[in-house]
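User: Here's a protein and a ligand (zinc ion). What would the complex look like?
Assistant: Let me lay out the input and then the predicted complex.
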Amino acid sequence: MAARDRYSKKLTCPQCGNTGIADVSEDDHPSCKHPAFSIDDMPAGFFEEKNSNFPETYIVRCECSRKFPFRSLTEKTA
Ligand SMILES: [Zn+2]
């Protein structure tokens, strides 16, 4: 039973200030080696630059061409 944990996160471009709400999902299963992270709904103005199973290494590209990880390592996950 691998339930998918779905949530939304506000993306903010550190360069131009563009913002949008992304709908994402992860496997909610403690024994999984990785959460199989995926963005189900990318907000307008943001694009997938590098797909990853982890939100910390999933790279989002803004329409201004700035690239940044979906979730920074210093960001609280709660
Ligand atoms: Zn931007």
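Summary: The chain has one domain: 4-69.
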